[in-house]
């Protein structure tokens, strides 16, 4: 496994990546991820394609959340064909390393939708903790980078 991240650009944004039907209530698709990246472009949004070698296996998005002095790890998904192979956790680790190198904030926040146990477990493995806060059906987690 050789997971790497590349910023989304005119050459790689139309990849046809999608999640399982049962996951669609929990995870944004690539069109929504790209729309959110555009909406948060003034917050230094970073939309990324996740590759295993040269095969695109997923996408992710994070941006600055100045009002909370944190990065917002907004989106992460692995295409249905490549799930349960470790790509998600490795990509998330690399994204957290990018944030740490960037150094603007020392905290990362994210939300997952109540019932998405796979996301909760992944984020807990990465050191995220529940904050006790909820935003409708979204449960808030955070992690200190340093």
Fold and architecture overview:
Helices cover 24% and strands 36% of the residues. With 146 residues, the chain is of the alpha+beta class. It has one domain: Gcn5-related N-acetyltransferase (GNAT) (Aminopeptidase, 3-Layer(aba) Sandwich), CATH 3.40.630. It is globular, with a radius of gyration of 14 Å. The protein starts with a strand and ends with a strand.
From the 3D structure, determine the CATH topology. Answer: Aminopeptidase
| Tally of distinct domains | 1
Uncertain residue ranges: none
Radius of gyration: 14 Å
Q: Count the E strands.
A: 7
Molecular shape: globular
How far do the termini sit from each other?
A: 28 Å
CATH top level is Alpha Beta
What is the annotated CATH architecture?
A: 3-Layer(aba) Sandwich
| Percent range of helical residues | 10-25%
Write down the overall mean pLDDT. 94
Name of the CATH superfamily: Gcn5-related N-acetyltransferase (GNAT)
Beta-strand percentage?
35-45%
Number of helical runs?
A: 3
Largest beta sheet: what is the strand line-up? 1-2-3-4-5-7-6
Structural class: alpha+beta
The H-and-E topology, N to C, reads as EHEEEHEHEE
- Please give the largest β-sheet: 7 strands, mixed
């Amino acid at each position: 496994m050789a997971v790497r991240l590349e910023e989304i650009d005119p050459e790689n944004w139309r990849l046809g990546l999608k999640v399982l039907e049962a996951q669609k209530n929990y995870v944004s698709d690539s069109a929504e991820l790209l729309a959110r990246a555009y909406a948060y472009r003034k917050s230094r949004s970073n939309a990324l394609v996740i590759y295993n070698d040269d095969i695109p296996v997923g996408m992710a998005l994070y941006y600055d959340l100045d009002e909370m002095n944190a990065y917002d790890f907004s989106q992460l998904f692995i295409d249905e064909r490549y799930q349960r192979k470790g790509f998600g956790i490795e990509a998330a680790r690399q994204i957290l390393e990018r944030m740490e190198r960037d150094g603007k904030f020392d905290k990362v926040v994210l939300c997952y939708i109540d019932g998405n146990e796979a996301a909760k477990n992944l984020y807990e493995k990465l050191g995220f903790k529940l904050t006790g806060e909820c935003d409708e059906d979204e449960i808030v987690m955070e992690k200190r980078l340093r």
